[in-house]
Amino acid sequence: MSEATQERPTVLVVDDEEDLRDIMRRMLERRGYSTMVAGDADQAVTLCREHPGPIDVLVTDLGLPGVSGGDLARSASALRPEMGVVYISGLPKDIAVTKGLIAEDALLVKKPFTSDLLLEALRLILAEKAAAER
Question: Which among 134, 88, 95, 133 is positioned nearest to 111, based on CA atoms?
């Protein structure tokens, strides 16, 4: 990956709540991220398949209609194995892990969250990706 890619990482935000999706998109764009949004898993998978550039991080709600965010992340990661994942959910992480929705090492930001919490999660994922690419 070029250094330019890391200057303006691309984040795919997936949430069925349009208002929350829009708030996250605007907040991320103000902080220098390039964003794409999807309202459901099908739209997100289509974007992963068809977007010509990199998608650095998938930010997905765990409670999507018809499919869990964990299932979406597995499908999207099969198409883009280099993509990091941040989950957002009202569920505490231990419950999400116990229910088999996410892995123990997954990064989950609990709703309601501040922009600082989401940005910190993105920084962590991007730092892990950068270290893995070295």
Answer: 88
CA distance 53 to 9: 11
Residue 69, both tokens: 């965010």
Calculate the dihedral angle through the C-alpha atoms of 19, 25, 30, 31, rounding to the nearest 10 degrees: 130
What is the residue-wise DSSP string for 5-69? HHHS-EEEEE-S-HHHHHHHHHHHHHTT-EEEEESSHHHHHHHHHH-SS---EEEEES--TTS-H
Distance CA 17, CA 30 (A): 20
Q: What string of pLDDT tens digits covers the 134 residues of the chain?
A: 444 444 799 999 999 999 999 999 999 999 999 999 999 999 999 999 999 999 999 999 999 988 889 999 999 999 999 999 999 999 999 999 999 999 999 999 999 999 999 999 999 999 998 888 77
> Among candidates 80, 79, 62, which has minimal Cα distance to 71?
62
Q: In what order do the strands lie in the sheet with 34-38?
A: 34-38, 10-14, 57-61, 84-89, 108-110
